[in-house]
Amino acid sequence: MALDRYVAICYPLRHATIFTHKLVVQLGTVVILRAAILVAPCLILIKYRLQFYHTTIISHTYCEHMAIVKLAAGNIKVNKIYGLFVAFTVIGFDLTFITFSYSQIFVTVFQSSQKEARLKAFNTCIAHIFVFLQFYLLALFSFFTHRFGSHIPPYIHILFSSMYLLVPPFLNPLVYGVKTKQIRTNVVKMCCSSNSP
């Protein structure tokens, strides 16, 4: 999303020539390979290092790496360290890339002479940044509470971890739908007509 916004705002006339089908496939391949390369060792560490478990019931709403590791009866220090490495690698790379692309976008937006175009681009970027922050802050909360949050009640951790998975897909259509005038107008009409007697 950050790369798409960067190209759309900084090089609007070249968007279609830059974002070719080939580039999109290459970017998708890189993202999938990054996930596979970083997650595969987690699975290997669980399979071959952890042989005995206190229980087989995960006290979580979904199958998370550290939720499984915490079930183990053995030493889980290596799993914790690798989990933190993956979290910091992914979040560090993503936030660095996002920060770079949005700083370039803001430089381009502030150099624009058209006030209305500048305001529209700035407004769109701010909404994107809030979606990114919400996603990464909830992810960090989930990662850190698994490792250091023994004093946090499990139901709070489960709630925030579930929000980390459920809220971003829910927020994205709202954020982008509200930005579209036609959708916003129809939603307002639907809400006003359902409230009238």
Walkthrough of the structure:
Helices cover 80% and strands 0% of the residues. The chain is mostly helical.
Brief rundown of the structure:
The chain contains 8 helices and no strands. With 197 residues, it is mostly helical.
Strand-helix topology:
Layout: H1 2-10, H2 15-18, H3 21-49, H4 65-69, H5 77-111, H6 115-148, H7 154-179, H8 181-195
Pfam family, one: 7tm_4
GO molecular function, one term: G protein-coupled receptor activity
InterPro entries: GPCR_Rhodpsn_7TM, Olfact_rcpt, OR51/52/56-like
Task: Give structural attributes.
GPCR_Rhodpsn_7TM; G-protein coupled receptor; olfaction; 80% helix; 8 helices; membrane; OR51/52/56-like; mainly alpha
Question: Roughly how many Å is the radius of gyration?
Answer: 21 Å
Strand tally = 0
* Rounded mean pLDDT score: 82
Given as residue ranges, the uncertain stretches (5+ residues, pLDDT < 50) are none
Number of helices: 8
The fraction of residues in strands falls at: under 5%
User: Helical residue percent?
Assistant: over 70%
Overall outline: globular
Secondary-structure-based class equals mainly alpha
Task: Give helix and strand order, one letter per element, not per position.
Answer: HHHHHHHH
Largest sheet: none
What distance lies between the first and last C-alpha atoms, to the nearest angstrom? 42 Å
